[in-house]
Amino acid sequence: MAVFRYYPEDPSHYDKALEKKIARHSFLFALFFTLLFWLVEFLSELFGLDLHRGGIFPLSLQGLPGILTSPFIHSGYNHLVSNTIPFFILLFALVYYYRGLSYRIFFQMYLLAGVCVWLAARPAWHIGASGVVYALAAFHFTSGVIRNDLRLLVLAIVVVFLYGGMVWGILPLKPEVSWESHLWGALSGITLAVYYRRYRIRRRKFDWEEEPSGEESSEEETGPGENPHDPTSVTHDAPFRHVSNSTLPEKESPGNTGTIPPETPDPAAAEKNRPQGG
Q1: What Å distances lie between residue 195 and 35, 112, 139, CA to CA?
Q2: Cβ neighbours of residue 33 closer than 8 Å, sequence gap 6 or more
Q3: Are the CB atoms for 239 and 212 separated by under 8 Å?
Q4: d(CA 278, CA 271)
Q5: Which domains does the chain have, with CATH numbers?
Q6: Rounded Cα–Cα distance for residues 243 and 228 (Å)
Q7: Which of 71, 240, 241, 248 could form a Cys-Cys staple with 129, CB 3.0–4.6 A?
Q8: In degrees rounded to 5, what are phi and psi of residue 8?
Q9: pLDDT tens digits along 40-80
Q10: Are the C-beta atoms of 139 and 202 separated by less than 8 Å?
């Protein structure tokens, strides 16, 4: 999309209106999937439908379509609510930060987690969007570590607290919980975070992340007798400043070392000062 071609490389050209459009698009994309989850559950409760066979049944052709449909099927409203909040927040963040690439990442983790559950899980019907939630959380957390990005780390940690017991969800502690979906979802997110580690997230830096200005840095790094504004002083480094030799004034050019050339003797004065023979 054209709106995702905007990246604020230069904070002085930061376009607030366009950033709002991107945030609005990210919100609507995440909201669309969330509303689909609720619509399916609402219709299931309204008409008394048993949709569990739309989940994933490992190594079965009957359960193969569940790779696509299982995230939309839940065991009840409690199950749905527990998945809704983290799914919405994490998907919104994925689209907002990764922009045009976010669609590819989302559908890859969606399919990868489902395929892994179909290949290596207990022979039971696996339903719910928790596998995708784990994939999103693991992707953001791993990306934050790899990129040393505080925002992604904080986001993933907050979601872990909101989701409650997320770490324990990948362990086979409760037989009624599809811990395989959680485990394979988390591994899918980690795998994709490593795969896309070279993708650069361009953003505005916070004030405390900005580099110090050249003048302040020069004053801090200049020792006694090393005034960066004095052309006769000698400095070992001149950070944040580069002056081409061709633009230096004559008195600062490399050819002038500061020594005074010998004066040309005056012939009349030399004759006057010549020792006289007696």
Answers
A1: 30, 13, 10
A2: 87, 91
A3: no
A4: 16
A5: 16-195 (1.20.1540.10)
A6: 13
A7: 71
A8: -75, 75
A9: 999 999 999 999 999 999 999 999 999 999 999 999 999 99
A10: no
